[in-house]
């Protein structure tokens, strides 16, 4: 593990030297690199690395809300809290540790103080797995440890690093309905072509397929997002005007990032006391260069 501004980060390495770095601040994945050392996640050059605000980049976890519906803390508060390493994790089901897979288990247990923001007691666990092929899997479990039911939204707010936003295509969301965050979540239907970008986009695609792709022509690579338990996909790029209004975001950095989040937003997830929910995402990257 390493330290940044006094916050511990855990580094995972595959046998072929792909790597991932996870911060105890927010349980946030801060870096994901290929075997060749290429960074696959965007982090703003203006990011504020000091807690409590979440770092602009990587994969902040949004829970128990997405956006600002429930409490005053946009995207929920767990991304702003300190998590701990889970010393007693559930066994790695169906994964053979002899294959060289690296993983870490973190947990956030809600505090009395958190009840001011959300009046429910919960335990949120995150397992991050770096596989031999360099793919990154995040498995989150939310457990209701309260005496009454609660409902929540969840998102892996994933900032992908891309070569040029004008040359990017998102595949798998064609013809689906989406809620437009720029228009108070009004509902629209996407057209038949893959999504391309030429202005600000802030949408929640609903009831999406399990696999979504981001084709990056400039970098000649495709990100594949495979998800379970997370029916929705957020697509966000602030473009030039909004970028200038975000203090911890560089003016032209919108050209080099795209957020595509596996999420559960439209239909909140409800847990009775003692129940647990699991949401999983697997991120992989394929090079489209022919050898
Ligand atoms: C996006 C939201 O996913 O996150 C946007 O849809 C929001 O509306 C953006 O602006 C960034 O949020 P934040 O709180 O990290 O600045």
UniProtKB/TrEMBL annotation:
Catalytic activity: alpha-D-glucose 6-phosphate = beta-D-glucose 6-phosphate
EC code(s) of this entry: 5.1.3.15
Alphabetically ordered keywords of this record: Isomerase
Membrane spanning stretches: none
Classification via InterPro entries: Aldose_1/G6P_1-epimerase, G6P_1-epimerase, Gal_mutarotase_sf_dom, GH-type_carb-bd
Superkingdom of the source species: Eukaryota
Pfam family, one: Aldose_epim
PANTHER family attached to this UniProt entry: APOSPORY-ASSOCIATED PROTEIN C-RELATED (PTHR11122), GLUCOSE-6-PHOSPHATE 1-EPIMERASE (PTHR11122:SF31)
Family: Belongs to the glucose-6-phosphate 1-epimerase family.
Name the UniProt record assigns to this protein: glucose-6-phosphate 1-epimerase
Organism in which the protein naturally occurs: Rehmannia glutinosa (Chinese foxglove)
Highest classification ranks of the organism: Eukaryota, Viridiplantae, Streptophyta, Embryophyta, Tracheophyta
């Amino acid at each position: 593990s390493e330290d940044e501004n006094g916050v511990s980060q855990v580094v995972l390495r595959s046998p072929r030297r792909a790597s991932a770095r996870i911060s105890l601040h927010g349980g946030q994945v801060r870096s994901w690199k290929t075997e060749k050392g290429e960074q696959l996640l965007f982090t703003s050059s203006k990011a504020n690395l000091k807690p409590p605000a979440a770092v602009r980049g990587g994969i902040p976890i949004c829970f128990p809300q997405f956006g600002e519906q429930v409490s005053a803390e946009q995207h929920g508060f767990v991304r702003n809290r300190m998590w701990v390493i889970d010393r007693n994790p559930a066994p790695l089901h169906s994964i053979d540790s002899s294959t060289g897979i690296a993983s870490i288990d973190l947990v956030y247990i809600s505090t009395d103080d958190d009840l001011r923001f959300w009046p429910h007691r919960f335990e949120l666990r995150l397992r991050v797995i770096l596989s031999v092929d360099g793919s990154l899997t995040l498995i989150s479990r939310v457990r209701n440890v309260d005496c009454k039911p609660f409902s929540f939204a969840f998102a892996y707010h994933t900032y992908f690093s891309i070569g040029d936003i004008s040359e990017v295509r998102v595949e798998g969301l064609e013809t689906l309905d989406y809620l437009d965050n720029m228009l108070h979540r009004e509902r629209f239907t996407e057209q038949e072509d893959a999504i391309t970008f030429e202005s600000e986009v802030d949408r929640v695609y609903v009831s999406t397929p399990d696999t979504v792709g981001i084709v990056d022509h400039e970098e000649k690579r495709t990100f594949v997002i495979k998800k379970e338990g997370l029916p929705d996909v957020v697509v966000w790029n602030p473009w030039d005007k909004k970028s200038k209004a975000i203090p911890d975001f560089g003016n032209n950095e919108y050209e080099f990032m795209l957020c595509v989040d596996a999420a559960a937003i439209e239909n909140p997830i409800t847990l009775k006391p003692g129940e647990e929910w699991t949401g999983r995402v697997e991120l992989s990257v394929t090079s489209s260069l022919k050898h």
